[in-house]
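protien #1 (seq + structre)
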Amino acid sequence: MVVQTLRQDEVDRLFQALADATRRDIVARVLVAEYSVSGLAEQYDMSFAAVQKHVAVLQRASLVSKEKRGREQIVRGEVDGVQRARRLLDDYERIWRQRVDRITDLLGEDAGDDD
């Protein structure tokens, strides 16, 4: 049984966004507190434009949201996006555990055959 709660394109965007260490770090930072994009750019040894691109990838995956406040673009973490990722990984874990349970059952049946 394969559980797929998200569309394939959503899964692709989610894992693509989380595959990069800088993007995972941005998510962790903005889940703790809102940051301006320029404030985030100060945290990394890369250009403002590069940080903007990372934020855009995270936005497409719904892991962060961005809003304009005055002259700044404020980034905040989206708990719903993180929860979707967790639920997907939970589904994969459940599939894996079911497989382990079936193997354990088969091994138990084999052990019972020797008696």
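ok now protien #2
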Amino acid sequence: MPAKATAPPSLTAAISGRRRPLISLTPLIDVVFILLVFFMLASSFLDWRAIDLTPPARAGAGTPLEGAMLVDVRPDGLRLSGERLDLETLAGRVEARLAKMPDQSVIVRPAAGVSLQDTIRVLDRLAVAGAANLSLNRAGGR
């Protein structure tokens, strides 16, 4: 049986035809979407470092604030009952006071011009020091 002759590839078809890209983008896009879906399903959208600040049911209600520690957050630094301190010293003093009186209230009062991040940093550090009865009070009282 004679072998069937095949036509040699023509050079004109190779030259005039469209060249295929070396790397197809479709599998790369598929991988990106699969990774996107994976991270969306694996992510947690919980506030894992949220600080619980419960507003009082009505004005004037709640725990008495007599003897509460007042922490002023100012642009030039922190003050505990008027004394200027750094954050670690403040946390140490609050922790020492809470060791004696566990129900001690701590009022944090940020001044105008203080960034929210600085206030949150103070609240977070006080929460780590053991302050469970934290209140946030706005300076000026409006």
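Residues 69-136 form a domain with the Nucleotidyltransferase; domain 5 fold (CATH 3.30.420.270).
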